[in-house]
Amino acid sequence: MTTSVVPPVAEAAQPPKGKPGQEGGATGGAGWFTYLALGFIVLLWVVPTIGIVLTSFRTRDDAAASGWWELFLKPSGFADMTFENYQKAIQGTNLGEGFINSLAIALPATFIPILVAAFAAYAFAFMKFPGRDVLFVVVVGMLVVPSFVSFVPMLRIYRDLGIGGTFPAVWLFHLGFGMSLAIFMIRNYMATLPMTIIESAKIDGASHFQTFFRLVLPMSVPVLASFAIFQFLWVWNDLLVALVFLGPGENAPMTVSISQLLGQQGQNQELVTASGMFSMLLPIIVFLSLQRFFVRGLTAGAVKG
């Protein structure tokens, strides 16, 4: 007669105990200080924007007589708002021509650096050549060089080449000073892509050109969109570079045209705010259309592990 021995049943693993609102010992939510800090930062951004929006709809006399915040104390002032400032800004000035010039500057100055930087980032991420790491450090180190230090030598070079005061002069300048950030962002993102896919492409006989355009570039859309937002907003809102290399004239972008509206004594303040709101429409559309790629493109290459 045999006796069966039943093995003892292992006790179920107990989950780690923690305080209410915590999971695994980690904090479950943000504290009140975090919400206060975020609310304060939001106010710093929202309040001036509200002031610009309200001032753009006020007449010159109302804007000169009282501040925009007094509308909340006397709500009857909302009845006096008008679209006249927008009509004057668009029809009475060269704002429409400045809008076309801004597009002619911002679009090439955004897409050309992305294309060139994507090639360079692929080389830094997947190709091995002597001095690769040193060259990458040098490229990233160029981020600390301020753009204004090159104004005088670049103006001389453009004068010798005969392209001073033209769109290619601004394109080349934004291309040179936007490349470092573009290569840094795109290379870090490409370094997180699965190497098995790249190696499989090599085994199948794909060249670097085919691997770049058919595999790496489609998988790098989030970081390309993230940099496109940064570069487009920087070029679109730029005043200093446009003023130095283009100046007032037929090629002047919106930023230069808007700066010419404001008088020395603060005249045409209402036209400046209306023009500013008009110039904000396209950047807002660009950001909203690409925002789903924004965070993913920025954070994907931040930590590799």
TrEMBL record:
Please state where this protein is localized: Cell membrane
* TM spans (from-to): 32-54, 103-127, 134-158, 170-190, 211-236, 271-290
Specify the protein's topology with respect to the membrane: Multi-pass membrane protein
Going by the UniProt record, its keywords in alphabetical order are: Cell membrane, Membrane, Transmembrane, Transmembrane helix, Transport
The secretion signal range is none
Q: Which Pfam families match?
A: BPD_transp_1
Task: Specify the ABC transmembrane type-1 domain's residue ranges.
Answer: 99-290
Could you tell me where the Low complexity compositional bias lies? 1-16
Look up the coiled coil feature and give its residue ranges: none
Is the keyword Plastid in the record?
no
Please report the name of this protein according to its UniProt entry: Alpha-glucoside transport system permease protein
Annotated stretches, region: Disordered: 1-25
Any single biological process term in GO = transmembrane transport
Family of this protein: Belongs to the binding-protein-dependent transport system permease family.
